[in-house]
Amino acid sequence: MSFNIVTTVGVVSSVAVYYFYFSGRFTVSLTVLIAYAIFYSESNEKHKEGNAAHPITPVKKEKKACCCSGKKEGEKKKSGSGSCCSGKKNGSGGGGCCSTKKLIDVDQNEIPQEDDSMTIDFTTAFLEKKSKKVKKVPKIFSAAKPDSVAPASPKQKEIEPTEPAQDNFIRSALTISNETMLNSQIYVFYSSLQGSGERCAKIVHETLTAMPELAHQPKLLNLDELNDIDEYFVDVPCENALYVLVVPSYDVDCPLDYFLQTLEENFNDHRIDGFPLRKLVGYCVLGLGDSESWPEKFCYQAKNTDHWIARLGGRRVFPVGEVCMKTDGVNKVTEWANLLAETLKDDEPIIYEYDETCDIEEDAGADYASDGSDDEGLADVEDLAGKEATSKKNSNSMETKQMVSKDSPTYRNLTKQGYRIVGSHSGVKICRWTKNELRGKGSCYKKSLFNIASSRCMELTPSLACSSKCVFCWRHGTNPVSKSWRWETDDPEYILENALKSHYAMIKQMRGVPGVIADRFTNAFKVGHCALSLVGEPIMYPHINRFVELLHEKEITSFLVCNAQHPEALENIGKVTQLYVSIDAPTRDELKKVDRPLYKDFWERMLQCLDILRTKQSHQRTVFRLTLVKGFNIGNISSYADLVQRGQPCFIEVKGATYSGSSDGNGNPLTMQNIPYYEECTTFVKKFTEELQRRGLNYEVAAEHAHSNCILIANTKFKIDDEWYTHIDFAKFFENLNSGKNFTYMDYMSKTPEWALFGNGGFAPGNTRVYRKDKKMKNKENLNVATENTVETSAEVSVNA
Ligand SMILES: Cc1cc2nc3c(=O)[nH]c(=O)nc-3n(C[C@H](O)[C@H](O)[C@H](O)COP(=O)(O)O)c2cc1C
Ligand code: SF4
């Protein structure tokens, strides 16, 4: 406030005169009155000037409160002191902090410097941040974190953007109405190793099924048994699908890994539409886990599932449930399911925010990390351009696991069934034929077909994992599946040494078994043959060539069985004694049905493998293995002939599938009806051979092992002077190998004995055939079903696999 000099002099002299003349209170009052009049006039004067220069309507702005902040103007007056800070504090008699407490008039353009802290322009601050180094990319995100998914929302279908529309930041919000959700087709997916996942999924399924409001009956599906994950997670089964996923977590290798891997691969696959799961009405995930034993990784796979489905465009309609099965159990699952059911009915629409375009800072990953689960690479904001970065982040968080660690359910399953796990991804088992031969009860079909003595045979796989899920494989549902190797890798030397130890330990256990022949028992401690076919896909093991070399160094022959899905590995495989390719079906559709392969281009891969057999690997003793499954792959002889024409194998081994117990619990859909009789197999083989000959291909039926429903078709190259030479001369094989010269299958064949020829049954002399009395086996000669027990038959099935 400024006073002009004349006014000041006038006031001061008036006060002085009145004071000396009148003295007393009247003078003081008059002085105050005059001073106020001057102040008011000065202030008014100044305002007029200001308004002329800046004709903006002044706004009232309350300044920061001090000790009087709680009091209103009127209350202050009532206190009688005029101000709580009446000068007592510093004795100044006026001014002090109270000067800042008043409501003052300020011009918007004259915000004093000291007021900055109170007038942050958030819009500007936000834009400044956004205008830093940014990429403009389309972006989708579920704005709501799992625990804030269903906020109270206005009852409207389209919610107008709340942010002012910026060029680079268009935010809109969609809602999903209860009507849409009730009309949806709900799919309850689950994964389960030990059963609780399945039980909980059934609770959720039953809860939803009990809702009369739903237009369609919910469906229950096992994720681990889906023929093709992409049928549901790239394509969707119908326009109005809503997914509920019940997902346990395992810190060991499990089928869920493959599911998650597929989601991630699809997200990173440029051929797939960026957000294929946008087509869903919505989705939600119920996680099961154990927070006590795995506090750090509690429900991590459920969170990952939620993450990838959101990234693929899915709209979360309910918060991710996280249930500790140890402490909360099914009660909490029921609670979650009931709440989900209520939400579906609730006519309060669910807000789902959706950014059409949004700037993403290059270091957005850190900014947008979600609910503290950063270690799992979970982020709420999904960005397209950031795919690679986030994917890297996610992949980094997935540490390399052991394929079958000691505490895994797979380990327990396998060991319970007589397998010995070697290291973390290999396994051995002595098959029932090995035991049989030790007791003089006959060898497996490889004895009659190729001269393999079962008592000296070690069945081994260096990869318990597989890239297919064949219907006749008993291990489906618990075995690790993957398209490629993604586990810790054991050295080949370690595997062989420990596999032999384990094999010998199992042989040793036979010493007290009645009927074991001493000679054979002694010889069994010098393994002469290795069947690389037990379970899984041996060729996936990265050091398979070195492993085979090590076998050969010990004069152990090698039969390598591949599933025709890894052409690169097949092309590079070194010399083996016999190289198998499983041909489980003659056409694309049938192969998909039987093998349930993980690769989308499974058929092309198989054809490529056949080409490799005909060309690069034509020096090897090659075998097509056909496993006949009634209702799946018997019949289309012409298409089988096409494949033979393409691969030109030395032999075609045709074997009826073996029954491996009921389909309950093991994911194997086969029943006894799918197991062909021997007669059916021989009929197939005869017709097949006729078709091959009709095409000018030189194949004939050569040998058999009727007991195990197995017949050998051989190229007539192995028929010399009208005599079959389908057996292997092992000594010659090693001689050739050690000579370092190139050699072919023609250099180590030997004559097939009379008893093994087709029509003679194939039961090796020197053994006593034992017939099992079983009501189910109506025709002992013709039925190949091995019903001794599931464990035994499993070995047979695995040979097929
Ligand atoms: C080998 C193994 C590993 C597990 N790892 C985890 C884990 O990392 N995080 C977690 O929350 N729960 C973990 N659990 C607990 C399971 O997720 C929980 O028991 C679940 O209910 C199992 O479902 P299931 O019975 O269908 O297999 C693990 C359980 C097992 C047996
Ligand atoms: S069935 Fe297989 S593992 Fe058993 S003896 Fe025959 S080849 Fe060896």
Structure description:
With 801 residues, the chain is α/β, with parallel strands linked by helices. The protein has three domains: 1-36; 181-352, 3-Layer(aba) Sandwich (Rossmann fold); 418-800, TIM Barrel. 34% of the residues lie in helices and 16% in strands. It has 25 helices and 26 strands. The strands form six sheets. It has a ten-stranded mixed sheet with strand order 13-14-15-16-17-18-19-20-22-21. Strands 4-5-11-3-12 form a five-stranded antiparallel sheet. Helix 8 links the parallel strand 8 (241-248) and strand 9 (282-289). Helix 1 (5-22) runs antiparallel to helix 2 (25-53) and helix 22 (637-647) packs across helix 23 (678-694). Residues 42-173, 353-397, 662-666 and 773-801 have low confidence and may be disordered. The structure holds flavin mononucleotide and iron/sulfur cluster. Iron/sulfur cluster binds next to helix 14 and strand 15.
Report how far apart the termini are: 98 Å
Q: How does the major sheet shape up?
A: 10 strands, mixed
Q: Compute the gyration radius: what is it?
A: 41 Å
- CATH-derived architecture of the largest domain: Alpha-Beta Barrel
The CATH homologous superfamily of the largest domain is termed Aldolase class I
The shape, in one word, is: elongated
Strand order of the largest sheet: 13-14-15-16-17-18-19-20-22-21
Quaternary organization? single chain
Strand content: 15-25%
The ligands bound in this entry are: flavin mononucleotide, iron/sulfur cluster
